[in-house]
Amino acid sequence: MDLIIKILIGLIAIIHCYILWLEMFAWTTRGPKAFNKSLEELKNSKTLAANQGLYNGFLAAGLFWTFFISDKLWHNNVALFFLICVAIAGLYGSFTVTKKIFYIQALPALLAIALILVNRQGGH
Fold first, then answer.
1. Rounded CA gap, 83 and 95, in Å?
2. Rounded CA gap, 108 and 90, in Å?
3. How confident is the model at residue 120 (pLDDT cuts 50, 70, 90)?
4. Residue 77: how many CB atoms within 10 A of its CB?
5. SS3 of residue 38 by DSSP
6. Which of 13, 43, 77, 110 could serve as 60's disulfide partner, Cβ 3.0–4.6 Å?
7. What are phi and psi of 32, to 5 degrees?
8. Rounded to whole angstroms, how far apart are CA atoms 79 and 73?
9. What is the pTM of this model?
C-alpha cells in the first residue's frame, strides 16, 4: 500500500506542477481552452493567475518533500497536511469555478488521504 500511496502523491504533485505552469506561464496561450474562457478575460487576470500558480507550486513542493522524509510518522503527517490543503482547494474550486476541479484535484487528494489513514490504522 505504501507504493500506491507514493505513486498517488507523486501524481498529485505532478498535476500541481502542471497547474503552476498553466497559471504562471501559459495563462493566455493554453488557459482559454483549459478554462473555457476568452483570451480577453484571461489577459485581465494574468497576474492573479500567476499568484495562484505559485501557490500550486508550493503544494507540489510540499508533496515532493514527503519523498525525502524517512520517518514514517513524519512522512504521513506532512503528506496529510499538504493533501488536505489540496483537497480543500479542490473542493472550493469545484463549488466556485467548475465541478471538473473536484475530479482533477480534490478526489485524488481525498483518495490519498483515505489510503494513508487506512494504512496508518493497519500499522498499529
1. 18
2. 10
3. confident
4. 14
5. coil
6. 13
7. -55, -40
8. 10
9. 0.91
